Amino acid sequence: MSEKFVTLSDIAKRLNYSTVTISKALRGHSDISHATTKLIRSVAEEMGYTPNFMARNLSARRSNTIGVVVPKIAHFFFGAIIESIYDYAFNHNYEIILTVSQEDAEREKKHIQTLLSMKVDGIIISITQETKDYEIFNVVRKRGVPLVFLDRVPDIPDISFVQVNDREGAFQAIEHAINLGYKNIAHFAGYSEINIGMERYLGFEEAMNKYKVPINKEWVFHGGFGEKYGYDSFMKLYRENNLPDLIFAVTYPVALGVYMAAREVNLNIPEDIDVICFGGAEVQKFLSPPLSCINQPTELLAEKSMEILIDNINNSESFVNKNIYLPTELILRGTCIKFNKKQII
Amino acid sequence: MSEKFVTLSDIAKRLNYSTVTISKALRGHSDISHATTKLIRSVAEEMGYTPNFMARNLSARRSNTIGVVVPKIAHFFFGAIIESIYDYAFNHNYEIILTVSQEDAEREKKHIQTLLSMKVDGIIISITQETKDYEIFNVVRKRGVPLVFLDRVPDIPDISFVQVNDREGAFQAIEHAINLGYKNIAHFAGYSEINIGMERYLGFEEAMNKYKVPINKEWVFHGGFGEKYGYDSFMKLYRENNLPDLIFAVTYPVALGVYMAAREVNLNIPEDIDVICFGGAEVQKFLSPPLSCINQPTELLAEKSMEILIDNINNSESFVNKNIYLPTELILRGTCIKFNKKQII
DNA sequence: CTGAAAGCGCTAACAT
DNA sequence: ATGTTAGCGCTTTCAG
């Protein structure tokens, strides 16, 4: 029923060579003469030979495979990141083993172990919201497997990471808002235990302090990075009749939650209450009103991570950790472009 | 520098057992007594043992790994599908090797070969827009590797697939529109070479014929499934001053392209021109106006595919191909809910 | 330039 | 209940 896979020895028998010669020829080893290489290759192709990945990697040093761990896939930011990682890998002849933690630290740990057991050459990871135990990263290090953190990075020394300049981006946005006249600014800040949550908060704080705008603690929320968190936070303020002029959402989904809540209670954006968020998505252009955001260079983030990781893989002895911060871009659309006159009165 | 990976024989030496005993104990083989199994496992854990995936799969029959090929990742539909596939796999103890064809048939073929060489137990695939050479699927079959087509399926006999009832879904939407009074209906139909394009078109045609609404050939476009195609098609009609009342977009991105074009030329949706599309996305709720759509049950699609594939893997002898059509759901939001009065005049 | 020998880490079949 | 033998398909010494 099922046709046998063609192996090196099949080709060897047919050509009366040893498997070693075939193996070398196929990999373009200089040992083999140009003529026989050519012959062997054409026969291999004709016979439909494909190397056995498992066997190859069991005996060879490297697998030419990179493991990736992300918290989510159906998500604008990570979707874009992953796609770029796959593109980069394809163009550089690497395979990708993608795993998804679903924001679950236990799952994340398991996936890292799986990647290790699959003998990936290196790992790129964006940790979960709740990752607190960093021991597993030490295990990776001890195994000598290069590791690059992307966007969500733990607070531990001697690591390589690529992230966006969250603080600077948040600062610019809030500074812009303040200059337009917004004073009552809330911040739905997500998890402050994780770098992106903390840094965005610090950028917010810095801008508020610089312009001596008081920070109202009741307007600073901590919780999550998803729609529900945006929705709930908004509703809480609404019920308390304590709404600000502008909400700075820590992520794009949080802003979406705000949109949902505002619509539900018949409040208009940006007339009654205004929103801006960290993180961009194409669809934001089509929202009503179009949502202003602090855009992240997803493709660059992915490329830089891969570049550093591959560099680390190829120079594991001399490599020194790299920490990269990429700049964001403030994109103004329908929200956060002018102060709402009603509030001035 | 890099700590050695702990192997079976390391444990064996420490415990004065053979590797076979260790191997069996770790896999819970009934050969080994309960007591020693427990002992061996605890020591293995203590030593930080992780099985070598490559070695295991090289000697064992199955890899407990499923290969997946999709045309895109940063895309609402495929993002959701992939996430569900990962979830299902995680809960059923399978690993996933995901590859992305980027709508490129060549790349697709390469990826399938890679998956084969990785000895995956089965493959789930959603083919590209342009896949015309189906020979590779025969290769997969000959190798005895179970294959399930998901959503985008080629027109070849004796295959398993899971898809949405595209024709029925399109029919319902157009029927609904006609009943509301829409007569001038355009269809941006994407690629009709592929099942989803063809079936959606046929559903459209069926509804139009049933209610004797003439189909204007100038309003039926073929091209792609992306934003650009929606934008370009709209613009062409706009320039020719030949706009319909309603545009039925073959995919959600195509509808987005229409939104973009309409806004650019200052036409209002749904007052001046109306839109409905095949395929749902959460964000559609937040569009202005909220976009009506024919929703696909992504989670079910993923689950069914996995279920069938795993069934096929486990019963490769007795298995018979399954063809599944899942029903869609018409979701009415801001568009396609009432006929535009201006047009009646 | 070519090949024989050894082994990567694991498991299946067959003893004991 | 435990171990021995053999081998998955490939690559890396090392001899010739």
Shape of chain A: elongated
The CATH homologous superfamily of the largest domain in chain A: Response regulator
Catalogue the unreliable spans of chain A.
341-345
CATH class of the largest domain in chain A: Alpha Beta
Oligomeric description of these chains: homodimer
How would you sum up the major sheet of chain A?
6 strands, parallel
Please state the structural category of chain A. alpha/beta
Q: What's this, in brief?
A:
Two copies of one chain form a homodimer. Helices cover 44% and strands 15% of the residues of chain A. By secondary structure, chain A is an alpha/beta fold.
Secondary-structure map:
The structure is a homodimer of 345-residue chains.
Chain A: H1 8-15, H2 19-26, H3 34-47, H4 53-59, E1 65-70, H5 76-91, E2 95-100, H6 105-117, E3 122-125, H7 135-142, E4 147-150, E5 160-164, H8 166-180, E6 185-188, H9 195-210, E7 220-221, H10 227-239, E8 246-249, H11 252-264, E9 274-278, E10 292-295, H12 298-314, E11 323-326, E12 329-331, H13 341-344
Parallel strand pairs in A: 1-2, 1-3, 3-4, 4-5, 5-11, 6-7, 6-8, 8-9, 9-10
Antiparallel strand pairs in A: 10-12
Helix pairs in contact in A: 1-2, 2-3, 5-12, 8-9, 10-11
The structure holds a DNA duplex (16 and 16 nucleotides).
